[in-house]
Records
---
Amino acid sequence: GIAPAVHAQAAVRWRLASSFPKSLDTIYGGAEVFAKAVRAMSGGKFEISVHAGGELMPPFGVVDGVQNGSVEMCHTVPYYFYGKNPAFALGSAIPFGLNSRQMNAWMMHGNGRKLMNEFYAKYNMLSFAGGNTGCQMGGWYRKEIKSPADFKGMKMRLGGGLIGDVMTKLGAVPQSIPGGEIYQSLEKGTLDAAEWVGPYDDQKLGFNKVAPFYYYPGWWEGGPEVDFFINQKAFDGLSAENKAIVEAAAAVASSDMLAKYDALNPTALKQLVASKTKVLPFSQAVLDASFKASMEVFAENDAKSPEWKKIYADLRTFQRDQVLWFRFAESAFDSFMSKQKL
Amino acid sequence: GIAPAVHAQAAVRWRLASSFPKSLDTIYGGAEVFAKAVRAMSGGKFEISVHAGGELMPPFGVVDGVQNGSVEMCHTVPYYFYGKNPAFALGSAIPFGLNSRQMNAWMMHGNGRKLMNEFYAKYNMLSFAGGNTGCQMGGWYRKEIKSPADFKGMKMRLGGGLIGDVMTKLGAVPQSIPGGEIYQSLEKGTLDAAEWVGPYDDQKLGFNKVAPFYYYPGWWEGGPEVDFFINQKAFDGLSAENKAIVEAAAAVASSDMLAKYDALNPTALKQLVASKTKVLPFSQAVLDASFKASMEVFAENDAKSPEWKKIYADLRTFQRDQVLWFRFAESAFDSFMSKQKL
């Protein structure tokens, strides 16, 4: 039988620190979708308060916060923590890595989640997927990028550490600038380019007015996973029911975010094009040079971090098979559809 | 406060009728993943027993079973019920329809789920996504399909009613044959072709030995959604907590199935190729003729079913934007990756 008194007192209250501002409603909103699902499933007996980036701790301080237990969990992009160990990037996105579906496959039915959680254990935490943006756009540029040489000396705002290393190899000068200051820097020309997310998020910041060249694809984020990191001791303290509830709520939030981005991006893209954005593909030469630079950085990481080396090898083996398979049914279908009048 | 005695007695027991045999472990397994998540989240207070196709009722009788309340829910492919009303297909897959990500976007953040549930209400039921296979393969053929004329008179085993109508327009003769008899019929030549799912499921049936030409893409199933249908009265009888648990467990099962197919298909495809399967793309002429035939069938359905007409119009509008958006970042990324040595 169930001991009712224990149950009645068993209200669990957690705090979740997000790395995102509320203005990024799609990605920030993932944590709210998660918390709402937990609340509904537990009948209000498990409450998680969601705190925007900066509210409890700096946006990039959330892993420290989870590690030392000052919050039970956070919602963030693992590659933000590349500086702690390059292996963090593998839990989210590496240049020319997995697309969103392939990432889910590796995480759920390959070795991805297992290997990442072994690594995250060093930080007293475990992970659940907490969203994906789909393949991002390649950023906003004041001038056209016609060849890899155009990256040389280019001051570019970039999100993560790994793409910073690759862009440095290409000759660019990565800049770390808060979201709110990018527009002015592009306008003044103290910044030549900036990458953000995709049409829906980018449109709000109005970059097209000051840097009209909008390139694709965002080859450094083919399917970036956003994560929930949970303090291991806090998770261990949950009942079996609440553990299952957390896991399922993460699945809800994760699939919801990608669907929301996919639903919102097309309209934003059309509006951007209508307001004089020049949407252009990176040239083959630019992609080839970027691929080469990325592989050089990966080799350097192999030498620097045994955790990167082990997990990267597994991801790459899995990716070879995924790319092979996606060449057939999936690509042929999408490619035919892209040419139809619907 | 919580009334503990009520809680202790509040065990809910449901039966789920699957349309699938246990041998299709990936698609049948989706219902087991769902039931397991419900059990874990409810601490065993909500138990759903999963019954393979034929165990409680015929595989295609499951919608009747849910409608009349003889089971609380089922796990099936909506297009199986095309004969009841063509609109069922829109909840799963139509030829040249949405891919799996686009389907999720339409269902979760477009009008998809809302419109489909309005329609399903006529059958006393509501739906949750319960899986996706990703784009399927285009089937096994005893002879090469070089032009649309090769479909003429071809006896082909097909899964659903809508593709049957389209294939009939192309001159083929759709056959309804149980899974277990396909191999022998292909061997004897009483069947010229058969479509099933994709490499992982197909490989088990050994079709490559008797029909070695394996075509792609399965243009009639670009991203077929598998569904949980739930009797409305049974759902209404659940507590708010259990309703939320059912919804989240469906999200778990849904994303798990696609990831599992993606993880398993590549190895199966490689083994099929190694055992003399000839993997070939449908020609442009074949795809063009199939697209034209599909549009004709859709127009006929517009005239036949007001429910089809309303929902199809919404899906198509949504699809136009999706196809536009996927042409940019997503396709460019996948296309570049497909040519790299990894």
---
Amino acid sequence: MGWMQDETGLDKCAANHVALTPLSFLTRAAQVFPDRLAVVYGKHRKSYREYHARCSQLASALVGLGVVPGDVVATLIPNLPAQAEAHFGVPACGAVLNTINTRLDAGTVAFILDHGSARVVLVDSQFIPLAEAACAAMEGTAPQIVEVPDADAGHPASGRYPLYEDLLAGADADFAWQLPQDEWESLALNYTSGTTGRPKGVVYHHRGAYLMCMGTLVSWRMVLHPVYLSIVPLFHCNGWNHAWLMPLLGGTLVGCRDITAPAIFNAIADEGVTHFGGAPIVLNMLVNAPESDRREFSQQVEIFTAGAPPAPATLAKIETLGFNVTQVYGLTETYGHVTECLWRGEAWEGLKDAERAALKARQGVAMPMMEHITVMDDGMREVARDGKSQGEIMIRGNSVMKGYLKNPEATREAFVGGYFHSGDIAVQHPDGYIQIADRAKDIIISGGENISSVEVEGVLMGHPDVNLAAVVAKPDEKWGEVPCAFVELKPGATEDEAGLIAFARATLAGFKTPKQVIFGELPKTSTGKIQKFELRKEAARL
Amino acid sequence: MGWMQDETGLDKCAANHVALTPLSFLTRAAQVFPDRLAVVYGKHRKSYREYHARCSQLASALVGLGVVPGDVVATLIPNLPAQAEAHFGVPACGAVLNTINTRLDAGTVAFILDHGSARVVLVDSQFIPLAEAACAAMEGTAPQIVEVPDADAGHPASGRYPLYEDLLAGADADFAWQLPQDEWESLALNYTSGTTGRPKGVVYHHRGAYLMCMGTLVSWRMVLHPVYLSIVPLFHCNGWNHAWLMPLLGGTLVGCRDITAPAIFNAIADEGVTHFGGAPIVLNMLVNAPESDRREFSQQVEIFTAGAPPAPATLAKIETLGFNVTQVYGLTETYGHVTECLWRGEAWEGLKDAERAALKARQGVAMPMMEHITVMDDGMREVARDGKSQGEIMIRGNSVMKGYLKNPEATREAFVGGYFHSGDIAVQHPDGYIQIADRAKDIIISGGENISSVEVEGVLMGHPDVNLAAVVAKPDEKWGEVPCAFVELKPGATEDEAGLIAFARATLAGFKTPKQVIFGELPKTSTGKIQKFELRKEAARL
């Protein structure tokens, strides 16, 4: 231990120890980048001076509504300015921000509002009916609704609730922020959208969000003044913490209500977007966009993608359009991304597309703010770095949640042995890069052979007519399970089941080749992940 | 405070809380950048895999020499590989690194070795006589000397001490690093070179160095894989923490024994240097270098400069050579730079050279890792932001020292009121940018008028024949004090006293114009600062 023999007088004091918090990024930005554009959405264009003032007004208004430090303030808002402002305004009065997924059903929203004991909920006018139904279904006291209309987008005020802008207008732009005294204080509450049971409330601390921002900017090669397009929902790991990150860099956050190819291309061309994150489905949307939806742009745009490895065919196409894609991996419990497929320029340049894509399909290595991320067997021993031995991804570092709210047993289980247990099954390559073998349930076992649904999907996605493909296990008398594919074709495409099966068989072993192909739109979660459990149910019915 | 009503089970644990330390940057770099070039000096070219192994061997060797956690290990080495390795190898065995200024006299080195109770000292062969004289002059037990020869540079081994490379060769490259359990543990000890009295031992903690690195890379617009030329001595605030920073970015540290214009231009051209720090005297050296000492290069090179504002004439010249200069400000007590003259592109583009230089002469705003840096009067009230009202620069944030070793009284004084008191006198401009009015003793008071020696020096430096200029007060019967200039001319230049005085008078008020000019080489400290106290003594004798 690095304690010297005599450390008299060397203690922490106000001059040399300040609690880490992302709030300090905006406090500083208002001083050093006052005239830079902070948040953009349509006609809403606010500088850092204005953004800071509006967040201060929000904090002041919340205090006026009776919010006290430690209270929960919830939101039901798309990636719009008020949602970004809540990331600072809510903790600036000592409250904890609970961004709720706007695509959830009223029953689940009611559960979340009850479980978190939200005192106030900021609601976009589009989601007032959802909020009202949820409040009606609650067991406890319903939170006070504050309405955030977006008339220009066709969502005017209902007239039934106090309006966000009115509250701000009546509040104090010089409100003194309640900065944390201890960086372990709670900053945000995010409910995981588990496939079974009630969602769990993941609690973030100020320190974790601060360090998440620092690590992210290194991995994403961000310099001052990036322009970040907010596609990853801010209700999903707080948009991977990017709302908190932007003021550190004097960057601009570009809001976005509906994620469409024209909206993305327009933001890139008109606002000079340099960075965004999104599930592979977003990449797909871009490469498959008709020419009329595209725009010219000159900057290189950096994309972080997560949720599933991008298909090789998608990667090959999107890079020629001026995008650079880095796969990252993480969970709600880890504030979002904690591994990155760091590109080894010195070793990997000059590879062919297929080899590049195979490397980019890896989830990669620990990001800078993390201490250790590895793959372990059931006895918590690291698996061999052979690209074959499977185990669970285990995560240790400063961007790991405090735990699950009011669920100490689940927290204890998640942290057994000093690592967060991700639940994701992976291998480690000889260079230490982690690659998800399959979300545990996505392994198809056919005649005793393991089949990676990711691999089969990757092949199908290489077919020029395929927009999206998902492969699940279908129960089978003889083989136990066989792969069954669900496919969305591109508009106007005409490929049929036999053609796709033959295409897959040209690359895959027979046992890996889908035995059946079902065409139609795939069911997706609010974050764009394909709902495989729905497909598994459907496959079982076939 | 952001504590929720029920925080049961939400405590820190091994999974979600890891002590911040720059050591983790190298641990990670060895994993994710193993084949990247980490340290370069002549034939010494080591990858991150090798660098990590050598630092592990150093830690192992120190344990073999009897070093235990909390011990001090000192160095007397220029900016060479062993000095960089000590930044990781020493704390990796739990010891505290004390890099000693190689330009100090033996008596002061003896005081430092005694005061810090150094157990081992790593010594470059050039400084073996200094180390021997210091050890002989010590009151307590002398540290064990380990010699680091540099035969290629004309400094072969003395044959009297164990050799650094031999110790490494016999040590364990898989030594398990002793990472701090608490980020407040001591990492380094740096003695300030005060102008009066014995130096004070400034103690750094792991957290401060980690956050210093994070803040620096943002301000310096560093992305992955910078090439950093080590000009700022690593014994000066640990080279502003850059040895610790490089592994975070997979960057390359280029060693340098003697700071000369050819050495700098060669490193830029041959090693692709992208960043370096240095006092204005280094900038001067570059702009005044003869054509034969220069080399062509295509990259933009970013320079952090500190110690004094760069002269407008120097700034104007160096930017045309492919360098971008940012002034930073800090002290040993703040790990180096804590303010930066952040360039406000949106507001300041298109200004003329003189206006740009005037803005770049400011010390600027708090860097991202700092909480609050301002200028206060004696009552600790912020002075008006009018560019005129003077006060003391006061500093609060995570890159402030733990305190002075074995000097709790000086520590308490330095931290009165919850800020570190810098001792530097400054003004604040309306935009919050701080500008040093003068180091307190550098103000010349003539006939009741304050004269900024910095201003007068800036004018003199604009003369084409002037290489360096320093202005101090000379006692005067009539006016109390008058400005007296000491000037180094460029080789071959012929300007005389009358000519320079006339040149200055063309810009300056009469009372600010030097009454006397003395030509000759200026006395400088080990870090390149001009020793004004020597000049003041000389001026008093005139």
---
Amino acid sequence: MNRRETLGIAVVGTGRMGADHVRRIDRVISGARVAAVVDIDRARAEAVAAGVDGCTAYVDADEAMASADVDAVLVASSGAAHEEALLAAFARDLPVLCEKPLTPDAASALRVMEAEVALGHRLVQVGFMRRYDTEYVRLKALLGTGQLGRPLMLHNRHRNVASPPFFTSSMLITDSVAHEVDVTRWLLGHEISAVTVLCPEPSSGAPGGLRDPQFVVLETDGGALSDVEIFVNCGFGYQVQAEAVCERGTARIGDGHELVTNMAGRWGGTIPQDWTERFAQAYDDEVQAWVDATRRGEVTGPSTWDGYAAAAVCEAGVRALETGRRVEVSLAERPGLYGAEV
Amino acid sequence: MNRRETLGIAVVGTGRMGADHVRRIDRVISGARVAAVVDIDRARAEAVAAGVDGCTAYVDADEAMASADVDAVLVASSGAAHEEALLAAFARDLPVLCEKPLTPDAASALRVMEAEVALGHRLVQVGFMRRYDTEYVRLKALLGTGQLGRPLMLHNRHRNVASPPFFTSSMLITDSVAHEVDVTRWLLGHEISAVTVLCPEPSSGAPGGLRDPQFVVLETDGGALSDVEIFVNCGFGYQVQAEAVCERGTARIGDGHELVTNMAGRWGGTIPQDWTERFAQAYDDEVQAWVDATRRGEVTGPSTWDGYAAAAVCEAGVRALETGRRVEVSLAERPGLYGAEV
Amino acid sequence: MNRRETLGIAVVGTGRMGADHVRRIDRVISGARVAAVVDIDRARAEAVAAGVDGCTAYVDADEAMASADVDAVLVASSGAAHEEALLAAFARDLPVLCEKPLTPDAASALRVMEAEVALGHRLVQVGFMRRYDTEYVRLKALLGTGQLGRPLMLHNRHRNVASPPFFTSSMLITDSVAHEVDVTRWLLGHEISAVTVLCPEPSSGAPGGLRDPQFVVLETDGGALSDVEIFVNCGFGYQVQAEAVCERGTARIGDGHELVTNMAGRWGGTIPQDWTERFAQAYDDEVQAWVDATRRGEVTGPSTWDGYAAAAVCEAGVRALETGRRVEVSLAERPGLYGAEV
Amino acid sequence: MNRRETLGIAVVGTGRMGADHVRRIDRVISGARVAAVVDIDRARAEAVAAGVDGCTAYVDADEAMASADVDAVLVASSGAAHEEALLAAFARDLPVLCEKPLTPDAASALRVMEAEVALGHRLVQVGFMRRYDTEYVRLKALLGTGQLGRPLMLHNRHRNVASPPFFTSSMLITDSVAHEVDVTRWLLGHEISAVTVLCPEPSSGAPGGLRDPQFVVLETDGGALSDVEIFVNCGFGYQVQAEAVCERGTARIGDGHELVTNMAGRWGGTIPQDWTERFAQAYDDEVQAWVDATRRGEVTGPSTWDGYAAAAVCEAGVRALETGRRVEVSLAERPGLYGAEV
């Protein structure tokens, strides 16, 4: 495929997660477009497709994948439906981004893996999105430098405000701790060899019968421990934290700071060395906002008046610097074109 | 213009900033493409154009704007060249994103403003990108709620590791404090009415003759004060901080925490309520990484093996929960397709 | 004087501050006792004296200083009365701890200084207690190491919840900023050479007519600047912060962290290397609590039961370590002597 | 005993910990004095006694306790010697502060407890000094308010730079985790019912054969879990942290911040409302420094010159406020009496 060609994507499943991916590909992602959406609820698929230029709604995933417009597949249907969608994509040799879990159990996951191995090349990226989170990425990079030495333990906290009504005690493991399972494997580069789960008396904030919170200890084949507090009815917020304890220091993410380390008698974080790092997001959002407004036929953001006012103040500032005195700023009258608001 | 049509942009100036905007539009921004680049250095323009599909190099900005492919202009040339580029864009009624400063002095900025007013509609967005920085946006939003009461003072810190060789004492005002001038006007919604600049004995880390650091006090027509420490050879990092002191509390950004407030006997920040807030960036980067790899014909990221391993561990975890005991995990053999790395 | 002899102190002034010093010398300070209290309000002096063993009440300071029991004087009366008390102590060559301000104006302070110089030796310690605050002490020590280079600027914040009814706009300077005046001189080792005061529109939380907040800029004879936000009706709490900006880094105290530095690409603080540093206060308070209880004829704090329970749990812990298994703890029955509470 | 009488204390054991307690009682503690020190090493006892006025050295603890000067006993000898010293104090009905551990094993602790119960009143305070640490005290107080709801889990971190040469794997439990055992019991008000110890592959920073770090999970009879990371060769510092996870929020101490809570969508800490809270330690240290200097016949701390200079600057400040202008400060010449240093 020519790198410059825009990728046509079929999104399978248009529930909350699928619809959010449709919006993301349509509005945020560069180099791709939503060519097709699939849902067994035809009305829902058509409603989503209606909001996207050149997007067709399907009920059958295989039919969507057969379309000449479709170059790749994003699977966001319920876990139970993943195996079928993945095998259909394999049959057409289409790359797939598959939301987690890959499939609901180890046996079906093994079948999918065997099918991919039979193809002889990878097609699947699993949706463990924490591997793309800036804080986890920085933590992984720091561990990779070897500055802290070998990781010995990983302490994880995973807290949700409240669990949805259908949540069961097992789902704290399969739906929530599943993320820490992947994070542990990825950060440490170990496989997990044993699991222990301890349950304190449940919180009175948890629905009756739900074992919440739980405390999970994972042991790895590299001799490390990873403990997880999972608390899905903590009531106060959504919080995901991790601290890697290594031979020569620790590093922690997720508690309102940037990455914080303990090392050589000091705790703290790094300071960027450059505006490209500090304001990368601001530049991206600025240009995206300008493109979006321009496509709508609008002009928004800082105006010529703002540019003029800054120039006038800076001129006064330079005089203040040169004279060592307070200098008053005088501005032209503000044209109505620029509204009343600064 | 149809919202769905991809915007063709001419980037004027292909120095460090212009080239970075070309990369941004080509790789990050959704709904736009670089149709043209302009530089008085033809070789530089052509080198940049060569890296972008369907992009033409020009020496003359007006010629580029005349192209049928160009719907909008991004001006990233040196400040002295802005007025001419802006007036050329006005002549063709093209929307412009103009890097700061709008122009180097108040008189020329006034001429540009008068030309835009004569057109009768806005065409210009000035590149004060801090208005798009997440931390400043949160601070502005908080001030807008009125929870903290009326702002009385704004304390700003603006620190660079080292200044470039051509930097003069005036440029600390016109190049650096210019950002705080805009931030003060935007956050407070006031115009600036007077400026005082105080200079301590220069740092021995500053080049000879440079008045660095400086301390600038801005007074506003709304009765507020905004003080700015500008220190362009601080040596230790790039740091931009602001604290708004209001009638009922203060709010601070930029020092390794998220937005921190002092209010009603408590200091601290907010906790997100949802994973959509905490992991928005991770989802965006995940999908962008998948699209980029797929367009290159590659499959990267978490593999089917990772999905299978997670399923196997979660199954063991559920058994551990149900039995209250440590459960060992057993995995199938890892196929060579997935490499040696976890 | 023999170092081991207990110091007899006359406390002059038994208002809020004086009474607190009486309590402090009686209950907290080692090696001293309150021998006399003085107040023009005889009843108040007697009430305070009644709570302290061997303490005599006086109306006249000079009479108290004449007592053979009095070795030193602590002046905590109103500022206007300080000059007379200091001169009386000088007449008897008694050491004095004098609450700030030394006297209310420069002329009277000069008279006191001339009298002390005439004596030929120092007798006075002025009550600038911030020089004894752990955070300021650490900041001063850090500046003294030279690690950060020469100090260029000092940013100070001084916030009170609400001002007392008698507070005037001048008192924000003479009563509040007086502390930052001393802190600036002490931290930097410079004299102050000029002062500028800027006032934003007063907060609606300030009493009518009070210029609150104010922004004060001090210039020093060493070429440094020290700016002070003084805000005595901030509404949210009592907050005293300082950031020293030096040639190679900055150091900040007072905002809910320990001393935090910016240096060489890192922000953060130090980690103690030893329990003697981390728990010094706990040991002091533990022993003081034990002494106080014992003198009252009581036994409080962790009991023999607590010691026993810890021993039993640790024994089980060692078995758990040795066997790699969960070990249950069994305790003897808890004797009634130790109450019901753990 | 009359509350005002100074308490005569016998300190048993004059090793590192005992000597530190002697210094503390002599120099820091109000209302007590060291009447006797006891050590089987007579030379060491005498050396310590020589530094304290009116202190007698003994080799035999019982003999020291028989002295009329001794009102109470502080036991700081090795753990194995505690039982005998405690029983001797019981025989004379003397109150005891006994360093932890009470005794080295549960059986001997039980014997001590039975002896005290037989007396019918408490004599022993065990030296679990964390119960007096400001941060733990604040955490306990917060839990007591019920704002956070019932505690469900306690996460503890206990890290030392390096272990002493004689440290064994069991001592990580009996010497180190012993503190968390008490903290868990005290903070939660529960007894501990079971213990599990997990060991990752030891750190290469630990001496050969030492199982370090260890991860200990304590279960309580109140249905809570308390996990402890104990890592006695972490290399970077001494760190003691705890986070209580409750039904409606969490609270954390020990990581370079004051007490930080997660509650109702906010993380953060409290701001003092008053200078008596913020500067309590500074006032105590100021007065102690003055008393100590005066007893040595010296005058230290802020001088009359400092008081005068502050008065002069404040006068200039008031004029700057009144005139809205920069006002220069002029000072008298500095008398030689006050040295050259500000």
